[in-house]
Write a structure and sequence with these properties.
The protein has 141 residues and is an alpha+beta fold. It contains 4 helices and 6 strands, in the order βββααββααβ. The relative contact order is 0.14.
Length: 141
């Protein structure tokens, strides 16, 4: 079993509050986030962006391993994730995470590509964690 950690600290409350996120690896150290990084365009991160990065990274790695198991050793995968945050009464809900994949895998047939991508999408641990709708748009180049 592997456990990874992160911490969030928030000083002040509501729109005026300021937060910082730190990850165990140190990739993020006191990374700023707050109302304007989440709902505006102020520099910094936000939870939805971090979920999108996790989902894109997890799915891409899962597909990479599936392709290796199927005998493929060359090519490239590029996945973007769009996580949608919507108003839900007085609060908000993350309603979906949509993945868009562009793959270049020499010798891979479309039917096998579709099956491997769908399997990776269904079995990626982050896909399993996300309870919102998750869709995949995959293109073999």
């Amino acid at each position: 079993m592997t456990t990874r950690t992160a911490t969030a600290r928030y000083e002040g409350f509501g729109k005026e509050g300021k937060g910082h996120i730190t990850t165990q690896s140190g990739v993020l150290t006191d990374q700023f986030y707050g109302f304007n990084t989440r709902f505006g365009d102020e520099p910094g991160t936000n939870p939805e962006e971090l979920i999108a990065a996790a989902h894109a990274g997890c799915f891409t790695m899962a597909l990479s391993f599936a392709l290796a198991r199927a005998g493929f050793s060359e090519g490239s995968l590029e996945t973007s994730a769009a996580v949608k945050l919507e108003q839900d009464g007085d609060g908000f809900t993350i309603t979906r995470s949509d993945l868009t994949l562009k793959a270049s895998v020499p010798g891979l047939a479309q039917e096998q590509f579709d099956a491997l991508a769908a399997g990776a999408h269904a079995n990626c641990p982050v896909s399993k964690l996300i309870k919102a709708q998750s869709n995949l748009d995959a293109t073999l180049l």
